[in-house]
Amino acid sequence: MTNQVPELSFKDIEKGDTFSINILKDALSNHGFFSITDHGLSQDLIDRCYACSKDFFDLDFQEKEAYSSVGSKGARGYTPKGIETAVGEKIADQKEFWHHGPVIDDSYDKKIPPNIYINEVPNFNENFDQLYNELHKIGSRVLSVISLSLGLDKDYFSPWIDKGNSLLRSIHYPPVQGNTNPHRARAHTDINLITLLIGAEEGGLEVLNKDGSWIKVEPSSNAIVCNIGDMMQLVTDKQLVSTTHRVIQDLEQESKARYSIPFFLHPAPSINLKSVFRENDDGILADDFLDERLKAIKLY
Question: Which of 26, 125, 182, 242 sits 20 to 30 Å CA-CA off 63?
Fold first, then answer.
């Protein structure tokens, strides 16, 4: 059993390097987390998006609250600290966040809402539109590698995510006050197919290993951390694992603001999530699966 999250060159994986692919397969079957370098995402774009995020979260609460996500199931706009609560938990996470999706037109499912434009932060939406598109391309490439690892055609999941309901989340974790609650995001799994995370090098992200221990995720600067979500676990009959993870403040370190930007790769709402191995599986609509989980984490 691996006791660390491997960091791999995405170029090596895509060109079929046997050593890298074997490490990836081991990570996927054990805890569902790995990180990639050589992914092609522009550092300048990342820096611009983080600067925009900080500018937004630095606004007065009343200004941010004007973009509240209330009524949209948290799908777009601003969600303040103290709302999202991990499944089975009674204490809400210590974070505020902004949700941004694809630029839609009439060809998208009507259940996918439009983005909200922030007036106070110049170029926020332009930068996040670009980041969304770039991470969607990288996510599609990661899905192709995962498809091949399962013995499927590399484009198996492409129709699922075409005009999908993916989500870009900009998160601000304020400094933790006191020592009674170090949990910035309590233990949870992700809802979606796969997650791509930029900004994990700030520290605090931990993954639950099969032996019950917590593995610190410590990627190098500019690496993208990838993990399996519940939808992928469902359709692979748990061959791929959606692993519990958390964000925690090290009480021996000074607490400071933490920022991160995960990209949650989702299928279109109308996709039937059924086993990729069993023809007789009835499945569940992606939109129904998502609604059930949003209710569970109090975003509905």
Answer: 182
